[in-house]
Amino acid sequence: MTESLSFWPVECQDGEPNLFVCLTCLEEVFQAKVPVEGCPGCGAIGAFEPFNLEAIKDWGTEDLIRKAEQWPSSSSPATDSHSDQSVE
User: Fold this and answer.
1) Cα gap 19→59, rounded to integer Å
2) What does the alpha-carbon distance between residue 26 and residue 3 come to, in Å, rounded to a whole number?
3) What is the pLDDT of residues 48-79, one digit of tens each?
4) Which of 18, 57, 66, 70 has the most CB atoms around it within 10 Å of its CB?
């Protein structure tokens, strides 16, 4: 990704899902944050919903599962939650 993205942080309580998946394209996942400008994959605005890794493994595509598995396995926000890159 050549462009820098801006994100809104999302506070997640312990035990709450913290992986936000774009339900329009099912190709982007972010931990404890959502892109301000919409999904970098399809441009959808407000299409992100929280899931835990186990749920994503139940219905996600292989690519989405791979991206979700790259995030640290934790219910709390990632230490780099203000990073400007999605997991690719």
Assistant:
1) 14
2) 21
3) 999 999 999 999 999 999 999 998 864 444 43
4) 18
Residues with Cβ within 8 Å of residue 54, at least 6 apart in sequence: none
Residue 21, token pair as written in the block: 């998946």
Q: Which two tokens stand for residue 69?
A: 């598995």
Please give the structure tokens belonging to residue 81. 């939650």
Cβ-count burial 9-22 (b if 16+ within 10 Å, e if not): ebebeeeebbbbbb
How many Å separate Cα 56 from the centre of its chain?
11
Amino acid identity of residue 8, one-letter, is: W
Angle at 16 between CA 13 and CA 70, to 5 degrees: 105
CB 16 within 8 A of CB 78: no
Report the candidate in 59, 63, 71, 60 with the shortest Cα–Cα distance to residue 19: 71
From the centroid of its chain, how far is CA 71?
9
Q: What is the pTM of this model?
A: 0.77
CA separation for the pair 6, 72 (Å, rounded): 21
